[in-house]
Specification:
The complex is a heterodimer of chains A (115) and B (114).
Chain A (H helix, E strand, L loop, with lengths): L4 E3 L2 E4 L5 E6 L6 E8 L3 E9 L2 E4 L8 E5 L5 E5 L8 E8 L9 E2 L3 E5 L1
Parallel strand pairs in A: 2-11
Antiparallel strand pairs in A: 1-3, 3-8, 4-5, 4-9, 5-6, 7-8, 9-10, 9-11
Chain B lengths: L2 E4 L3 E5 L4 E3 L1 E4 L5 E7 L5 E7 L5 E3 L5 E5 L4 E6 L8 E8 L8 E2 L3 E6 L1
Parallel strand pairs in B: 2-12
Antiparallel strand pairs in B: 1-4, 3-9, 5-6, 5-10, 7-8, 8-9, 10-11, 10-12
Amino acid sequence: GAGVSQSPSNKVTEKGKDVELRCDPISGHTALYWYRQSLGQGLEFLIYFQGNSAPDKSGLPSDRFSAERTGGSVSTLTIQRTQQEDSAVYLCASSFKPRDDYEQYFGPGTRLTVT
Amino acid sequence: AQSVSQHNHHVILSEAASLELGCNYSYGGTVNLFWYVQYPGQHLQLLLKYFSGDPLVKGIKGFEAEFIKSKFSFNLRKPSVQWSDTAEYFCAASDGGSQGNLIFGKGTKLSVKP
């Protein structure tokens, strides 16, 4: 079956521009997570969704970051007025339920480069 | 604050050597622990996990990890590595809550020489 997909796979943008990153989770997975992997920093939790709602937005690094999920499926992470420090690989994961005893399945990531 | 630390940034081994990757966590209460692996060009995938019970857990591809509560550690081991184990390994933890989000370490890159 299909896994988690993300698009685009690579995105190069100029500083100050807005970008949208998309995640298609595994069908039937109610939980969706966004992580960021910066050079030498490991994976940093950003936000998670249970259905279409995001109970915990505390991981978002600034108010330039926002995310939404529609129809309990696709999610979009939006970064406004991008900065060079936003350059990273953005990973999406989904699981059947938002509990850690349900395995998270990761997508291939979107590599964002802000010039 | 909850955190996970991995001691080694890059480990280089020859095939058949034994592997141990260190992981320490800092959590106030219940903790669930994971090791993930990312092979070159592939997605992050789960190697093994510990929730409770036997502190020695076995995962895929001959990997195992031991939870030592007194040392706040969850080290990953493999008796004999293969070239195909070349990958980046991430230790992660969660507090067993209803969110499921994971706190990851910075990762250890393993290079196995044939």
